[in-house]
Amino acid sequence: MPRLVDKFVGRTPTPRKGMPSAKLSEEEFKARYKQQFVDPAFQPLTASIERIASIAWEAYAESRKSPITRKAGSAFTDPDYDLSVDWIAAHEAVLQAQRRYESDGPATSVDHQWLIAQRAYLSRRNVEELPSRRNRS
Fold this sequence. Notes:
Blueprint: H1 26-34, H2 46-61, E1 69-71, E2 82-84, H3 85-103, H4 109-121, H5 124-133
Antiparallel strand pairs: 1-2
Helix pairs in contact: 1-2, 3-4
């Protein structure tokens, strides 16, 4: 009886090209978006939530991932490139942390863990809170 593997010996498989789209349909997107408003307290705001879900769908459908941008500036290879202001703020916070790390001498384990956490999880809110976190003894 022939083995299954013998059927493929000497044959080169044809590679698959491309990936199926992971993009959600409007109906699926809105259903997922509105799941966060299932609490009965949101019931009086159903029309407003529907309008916000429609705006969120438009942003998703048009791939507006970074709606607020500014020019990269002279520190970058392409100074005229539009960068997300969130990305720029996170980048500047990481650079500040790196400068602080290098100027303070040997870092403690806590300092090192803080720097790693900031690199991994920076968001606009975290960036705004950074000045209060910088005051170390």
